[in-house]
Design a protein that fits this description.
With 81 residues, the chain is an alpha+beta fold. 25% of the residues lie in helices and 16% in strands. It has one domain: 2-Layer Sandwich (Alpha-Beta Plaits). It contains 3 helices and 3 strands, in the order H-E-E-H-H-E. The radius of gyration is 12 Å and the shape is globular. The two termini are 18 Å apart.
């Protein structure tokens, strides 16, 4: 599991969700566009903010973020207790 403080200090921007927060580092992004292709409900460059973690199922968001080839995306799952 990622540490939020480490991600933010490394230059990632946080996008809040109810069940999972998504973090994005524009400098690491190689524009493979897997996020846009496989989960356009969450990742959409034509809106602000372009990442909406709650626009898809938590497991789908985690899967797409985990498969980012450049590691420009990260997530921290929130406990549901």
């Amino acid at each position: 599991m990622e540490d939020e403080k480490v991600l933010l200090q490394a230059g990632y921007k946080k996008y809040n969700g109810l069940e999972v927060d998504v973090y994005f580092h524009p400098g690491k992004c190689t524009h493979a566009a897997n996020c846009l292709k496989y989960l356009p409900s969450t990742f959409n460059m034509s809106r602000k903010p372009w990442i909406l973690p709650d626009a898809a199922l938590r497991e789908d968001v985690k899967r797409v973020v985990a498969n980012c080839p450049s590691e420009a995306l990260a997530f921290i799952e929130k406990s549901l207790t």
